Amino acid sequence: MMFVHIIEMFVRQRGHLLCHFCRCTYELLMWFDPSVDVSPGSTSEIKHNLVEQIRLFIHKVTDPLHPKVNANRPQNVKSLSHPFSREKQHLYSVFYKYQPIGLIRSYFGEKVGLYFAWLGVYTQMLIPAAIIGVIVFLYGCATVDDNIPSMEICDPRNNITMCPLCDRACSYWKLVTACGTARASHLFDNPATVFFSIFMALWAVLFMEHWKRRQMRLNYVWDLMGFGEEEEVREPQRSGSDTSDVFICRKGPDRFFLFFLSKWSISVTFAIVFGVILYRISIKAALHISTYPAARSNIRATVKTTAAIINLIVIIILDEIYAAIARWLTILEVPKTDKSFEERLIFKTFILKFVNAFTPIVYLAFFRGRLVGRPGNYLYVVGSYRMEECAHAGCLMELCIQLCITMLGKQLIQNNLFEIGIPKLKKLLRKRKSEVTSLQEEEVKILKRYEKDHFLGPFAGINPEYMEMIIQFGMVTLFVASFPLAPLFALLNNIIEIRLDAKKFVMELRRPIAAKAKDIGIWYNLLRGLSKVAVIVNAFVIAFTSDFIPRLVYQYAYSPDSTMHGFVNHTLSYFNVSDFQKGTAPLEPMHLHYKVQICRYKDYREPPWSSTPYDLSKEFWAILAVRLAFVIVFQNVVMLMSDFVDWLIPDIPKDISLQIHKEKILMVELFMKEEQGKRLAVQDNHNQETCTIPSSDDQSPSRPRSHSVIHSKASW
C-alpha cells in the first residue's frame, strides 16, 4: 500500500509520464512470477495485493472516467446521463425526442457522435418508408376478396386434382385446400409491391443524400472541415505462449490460404442451408405418413415455421463464430496501419455475416421450386430426396415468413436481448470475482470513480453496432418486394435500439478514449453498394419469384376477355398418372375416394396427348422473355431515377455552403489587410531611414529601394 501511495504522489508531480513505468512494472511482476493470479477474481491470502492495486492505478491514470453525477445538483443543470437514458424512468419515455448529439460528441468524441447521428437519421428516414409499407399491406388486405386468381383457387366448383407433393407417402389433393395460402400470398404479392420497390430504391438514395448533408453540417459545427485523419502504424502482435516481452514480426500468409479459409467459412453456411432443405423434405414426408390427425392438419405451415426457426438459430450462432474468424484472418494478414486493419476486418465480417444471413433467403427467392423437374421425372438429391416445390401461390409467402422470422428474431434476440443481458451478466460475474462483493453497500457507494469503472465492461468499439444496422438495412431494402412491413419492424426496433445503445454506453461500458472522425468510413460504401444491389434483387424478385409477370402476360396476351378469369387453369399443366416412375406412385391412390387418371401441376408444359409430351410450352418461353425484359427495364429506369435524384440534391446544404464561402472571403480580406499593413510598415521604416542617414556621393540611391522590394517579396 505504501508503494502505491508513493506512486500516486509522484504522478501528481510528473503527470502521465509514469504510465509507461506502471505498465513495465506490471509486466515485470508477471515475468518474475507467472503463476500469480492477477485477475479480479483472485483469491490470494493478501486482501489488497500489489498487482491488483497497480492494475487499478493504471486504469485510473490512463483511461477516461465516467463523471460523478451529484445527486444534489441544481435542477437546471443536467448531465449527459439525463437526456441520454442513464436513469430508468427516461429510458423509453423520451423515445420521441431528438438525441443530444452535441453532448454525445463532447462526452464520447466525434466517432461515437457520428454513429448516433447516423442512427438517428436512419431511424428518421424509416418513418415514411414504414408508412408507405403499411399502406401497401392494407391495400393487399382490402383487395384480397376481389383477387380473381384467389377466388378461382378457393372455388370448390373447379374440382382441380393436383399431383402428389412427395413420392409414395403423399397422395393426390384438391387445389381448394390451398385457399388460405393463396389469399395470404395476395397480401404481399399484388401490383402495389412493384410501386413500393421503386419507392424503396429512391428512398435509399434519399437516405444517403440526407446523411451526406447531415454529416457535412456536423463537420462544420464540430470544426472538422480541415481535419485529415492520420494513419497510425499498428503495433506488432505479442507472442501468446512466451511470457517474455518479445514481439512477433512475421510475414503475412499466402493470399491463397486466406482465400481458401474464407471460401471454407462460406461453404459451411451453404452446407447448413442444404441440411435445412433435407430437413424440410424429410419432415414433410414424415408428417404425411403420420397417423395423428393433428400432425397432418397443416403440414406446410409446420414445415415452414420450424425450418425458419432452425435457420434463425444457426444464423445467430454462426454470426459469433464468423466474427472471430474474420478477426483471426485479419490478424494473419498483418496490416500496417490501424485504419487498414479496421477496414479489412469490417469487410471480412460483413461478407461472412451477410452470406450467413441471406443465403436461406436467396435460396427461397431464386432457387426453390425451379430445380424440381416434373411428375414422372423429378430431380433427386442424396439418393431418394426429391427437391421441394413451392406452393401453388408461389414461394413469395415462404420468403415472407423466412424474412419475418429472421428479421424479428435477430432484432429481438441478437440486437436487444444480447445487448441487455450479456453486459449485465459480465458485470455481475466481474463483481462476484472481485473483492467488492465482500463489502457492505455503504462502502460500495464511497468507492472512487476509477474503482467503479474498473468493474464495467471494456469498450469494444462501435463496429458491432454498425454491423447490426447494416444487416438490417439489407433486410429492409433487398427483399422489400416480398415483405413491405420490413421498414415498420425496423423503425420500431431502432427506436428501442437508440436508447439501449445509450444505456449500454453510459452505464455498462467504460468510457472510451475520444477519437476524431470526419465521416463513418467504409460503412458508407457498404450502404451505397447495398442500395445498388437492392434494385437488381427486387427486379428479380418481382420478375421470377412473384406471379406479377405471368398475370400480366396472361391478361394482355392469352385472356379471351382481357381479365384474370382462367389464369389458374392457364398456369397448370396435365400429367397422366400412368407415367409415374416405378416406386414413386402414391401408396393411397384412392385418398380422394375416386380413381385419378389425370392430375395437374404448376408449370408451363405440353400435355401428355401432344406430339411432344411434357416439353416446355411456348407460353413458358414467352413469359421468360418478358421476365428478362422487365428486369432490364426496371433496373435501368430505377438506376436512372436514382442517379437523377443523386445529381439533383447537393451534398452540402445551401446555408453551410454560403457560410463557408463567406468565411473564405473574410479570410482572404484579413490576409490582404495583414499584408497591406506589413507593406506600409516596411515603407515607413524605409522613409525614416532615408531621413536620418545623410546622403553620400559613393552610396547608390537605388539600394534602399531594392531593399524594400526584397522585404516586400519576403512578406509575400
TrEMBL record:
Nucleotidyltransferase keyword on record: no
Location(s), subcellular: Membrane
Biased composition (Low complexity): 694-703
Region described as Disordered: spans on this chain: 683-716
One cellular-component annotation, GO: plasma membrane
Residue stretches making up the Anoctamin transmembrane domain: 104-663
Transmembrane region(s): 115-139, 192-208, 256-281, 301-325, 345-366, 469-492
Polar residues bias: start-end ranges: 684-693
Single GO MF descriptor: intracellularly calcium-gated chloride channel activity
Domain of life according to the entry: Eukaryota
Keyword tags: Membrane, Transmembrane, Transmembrane helix
Its membrane topology: Multi-pass membrane protein
Family: Belongs to the anoctamin family.
PANTHER family, A to Z: ANOCTAMIN, ANOCTAMIN-1
The protein's name: Anoctamin
